[in-house]
Design brief:
The protein is of the alpha+beta class and 153 residues long. It has six helices and nine strands; from the N terminus they run αβαβαβββββαββαα. The strands form two sheets. Strands 3-4-5-2-1-9-8 form a seven-stranded mixed β-sheet. β4 and β5 form a beta hairpin. α5 packs antiparallel against α6. It is globular.
Length: 153
């Protein structure tokens, strides 16, 4: 098992929750999995609607809404800050079902596709002007170009 796979599973285990569907790995963990850059200190996972429903019951005081009043009009996450895990319902209103399309499937988790990861980073760069998202967006594009258009192939 690779070091990144161990990190991914560690984050899942830290939640002390039995997922009904494999969580979708995003953010730095996904970037490291794809070989783009090392992850930071946190673990980011998009969770299925059925898991979200149960997780809200388990962690009712950890639910955070990004700028809205309800989960229907804004993004929601469960922030387990003490263990550096974010369990996310939606990002830019894109959910598990949509973001899992073309994912790389493993037994206990899924890895977001590079295309969907680029989309999320682009949304963060454009709408929120996140410096890290802008840098990640550039790294992903360079990775895609190198992978698909390397003249040494």
């Amino acid at each position: 098992m690779s070091a990144i796979e161990k990190k991914i599973l560690k984050g899942i285990k830290l939640t002390n929750y039995k997922f009904k569907k494999p969580p979708l790995v995003i953010g730095g963990l996904a970037l490291e999995y794809h070989g783009i850059r090392k992850t930071g200190h946190d673990y980011d996972y998009i969770v299925s609607p059925s898991d979200w429903k149960e997780l809200k019951k388990e962690f009712p005081d950890k639910v955070f809404l990004f700028g809205g009043k309800t989960e229907k009009d804004i993004d929601a996450t469960i922030q387990l800050k003490d263990i550096h895990v974010d369990l996310i319902k939606t990002l830019f209103q894109f959910n598990y079902t949509y973001l899992s399309k073309s994912a790389i499937n493993h037994n206990d988790y899924k890895i977001i596709s590079i295309e969907k990861l680029l989309m999320l980073k682009t949304l963060g760069a454009v709408f929120n002007k996140h410096t890290k998202s802008i840098k990640d967006q550039q790294k992903i594009v360079k990775y895609i170009v190198k992978k698909n258009y390397d003249s040494n192939k």
